[in-house]
Design a protein that fits this description.
Bound molecules: flavin mononucleotide
Shape: globular
CATH superfamily of the largest domain: Aldolase class I
Structural class: alpha/beta
Helix content: 40-55%
Largest sheet: 8 strands, parallel, barrel
CATH class of the largest domain: Alpha Beta
Radius of gyration: 20 Å
CATH architecture of the largest domain: Alpha-Beta Barrel
Distance between the termini: 26 Å
Length: 371
């Protein structure tokens, strides 16, 4: 399975893996694909340490970093200001929900500490993005920087290109793809609504060819709903040059999730990966749990906007974690959760998909051989 985008990035397989977990990034990169570390919530110091750790693990192979670029100028608040703008009734709504669920509370000191810590992580500012970019570009091992949300600012493209680093961007419509191409990105990730995390409304089957068309020659990676080799073949046949997967890695031994959380995913069906704005305030796909359902009930308040909703969740997730109650937690996951059925590893998943890809290609030739 060769592709031009893989060749230009110096990797063997056009399989890209988004993960917040550096063990997944190392395993995918070592298997010949490219891991792209989700680093938006990291401080520049944490990011620098993670890149250094990865460099030691992957023996000179290139990998990527995924950041959030909030845009130029505008509404920038400090973490403390974001924290202070969470209305008291929202905290009390969450407290009552968890009290009703029988989860023991944190001390007020612990609660304030976790929310303040979360505010520092979640408050995205141009300064933080700038510092993260500088840290990343100072490392020669990173060959791809991807922006998760919004139009890529020109300073990102300029600085990355000056270091021979390619720039990618996630898009959910053909219109956004055209704008990102104008902004100068080198790679587009066309992410269908089936995906885990922040998503749009267009399904992969419709989106991928639309983005390929709008990309006007800029390589496109297909994302959203891929967990099988046959889907990789379908994506390549629609003009994509590679695939970008996020959810599948959550079920691997390398993932950031606990054994219990992984088992909760293995028990889920595809229709348990629901759309809601409960996690971040933006529309995203996540595991349906009591926490999600309670927020979505008609008598609940509308979730806050980003990043206040994420900061508020810092408190409730900590409480759920302490109580070991995964019903009052949720996690971003896509519809492929219905295909994730048991403990596995990154290497095993890549081998499985490569075998399936070969089988699917053979089957395609058989089916289309009208001779
Ligand atoms: C747990 C999780 C967290 C995610 N967080 C981000 C993120 O911070 N930045 C980003 O660009 N994409 C994020 N995504 C989306 C992935 O980059 C990717 O586009 C998506 O997972 C692909 O679809 P799939 O989930 O069907 O594989 C996340 C996905 C998951 C599952």
């Amino acid at each position: 399975m060769k592709s031009k985008v893989a060749e230009s990035l110096g990797i063997e397989l056009p399989i890209f893996a988004f993960s917040h977990c550096r063990d997944v990034i190392a395993a995918v990169t070592n298997a010949g694909g490219m891991g792209v570390l989700g680093a938006a919530w990291m401080t520049p110091e944490e990011l620098d340490m993670s890149i250094e750790w990865l460099e030691n693990e992957v023996n000179g192979k290139p990998f990527g970093v995924d950041l959030v670029f909030p845009g130029t100028g505008g509404d920038e608040k400090s973490p403390e200001e974001y924290l202070a703008s969470i209305p008291a009734e929202y905290l009390s709504f969450v407290q009552h929900m968890l009290d009703d669920g029988g989860l023991s509370d944190l001390t007020p000191e612990d609660r304030d500490e976790y929310m303040a810590e979360n505010a520092r992580k979640m408050a995205m500012t141009n300064k933080k993005s700038r510092d993260q970019l500088d840290v990343t570009l100072a490392r020669p091992s990173v060959s791809l920087i991807v922006g998760a949300l919004g139009l890529t600012p020109d300073w990102v493209v300029k600085d990355a290109h000056a270091r021979n680093v390619q720039v990618g961007a996630l898009v959910g419509t053909g219109r956004h793809a055209a704008k990102q191409v104008e902004a100068g990105v080198d790679v587009l990730v066309a992410q269908g609504t089936e995906a885990g995390g922040s998503v749009g409304d267009v399904a992969s089957m419709v989106l991928w060819p639309q983005v390929v068309e709008a990309a006007a020659g800029v390589p496109v990676l297909a994302a959203g709903g891929i967990s099988r080799g046959s889907q990789i073949l379908a994506a390549l046949s629609m003009g994509c040059q590679g695939v970008w997967l996020g959810s599948l890695w959550l079920g691997t031994a390398e993932s950031e999730l606990s054994l219990e959380a992984r088992e909760k995913l293995f028990a889920a069906s595809s229709d348990d990966a629901v759309l809601a704005n409960v996690m971040t305030g933006k529309q995203g796909r996540m595991l349906r749990t009591k926490y999600v359902e309670t927020w979505r009930a008609s008598d609940s308040p509308a979730p806050l906007t980003w990043p206040m909703q994420s900061i508020l969740n810092g408190y409730s997730y900590k409480r759920a974690e302490r109580a070991k109650d995964l019903d009052y937690w949720t996690y971003a996951v896509g519809q492929v959760v219905g295909d994730m059925k048991g403990h596995t590893t990154v290497k095993r998943e890549i081998e499985r998909m490569l075998n399936e890809y070969g089988d699917a290609l053979e089957q395609l030739l058989e089916v289309t051989d009208l001779g």
